[in-house]
């Protein structure tokens, strides 16, 4: 029996979703690396709080990277798995040499802004193509990240 027949998904729909999920996967790798850079390079009076917070965020990004890749496999497609492809595909910009709290938080907020927009595109596409699991995943990511945006944005007031 054909794999996609078992899960009740159409090949062309699975391919459309996987294309977008692979873009998101690439962006998450950039976000992950940006967060590691912030964790390492942050300086100043908020060092311990931010150093730890950035670690929590990159651990979470690493989990999402695995979930996104495994979602792609679950719809019978192949996750991109090379750094050179990620840098080609990603739209999110690399953040280098950021060591002060304010610009570091800006990197986090602009990263979330970018990822949230991509996740909303996937939310709409997965709804249109009846991919409930991708839809639920995006919905979870969006609600988690909107809460984090609120918290990080509050530190800048
Ligand atoms: Fe560390």
In CATH, the architecture is: Up-down Bundle
Report strand %.
under 5%
Our measurement of the CA-to-CA distance between the termini, rounded to an integer number of angstroms, reads: 57 Å
What's the story with the biggest beta sheet? none
At the first level of CATH, what is the class? Mainly Alpha
Count the domains: 1
Low-confidence stretches: none
Dominant shape: elongated
Order of helices and strands: HHHHHH
The overall average pLDDT, rounded, is: 97
CATH homologous superfamily title = Ferritin, core subunit, four-helix bundle
CATH topology: Ferritin
Rg for CA atoms: 17 Å
How many beta strands in the DSSP annotation? 0
Percent range for helical residues? over 70%
Tally of alpha and pi helices: 6
Q: State the secondary-structure class.
A: mainly alpha
Which terms summarize this structure?
single chain; 157 residues; elongated; binds fe (ii) ion; Ferritin
Topology:
Blueprint (H helix, E strand, L loop, with lengths): L2 H5 L3 H31 L5 H28 L8 H7 L11 H28 L3 H23 L3
Helix pairs in contact: 2-3, 2-4, 2-5, 5-6
The structure holds fe (ii) ion.
The site of fe (ii) ion has 2 residues, from loops.
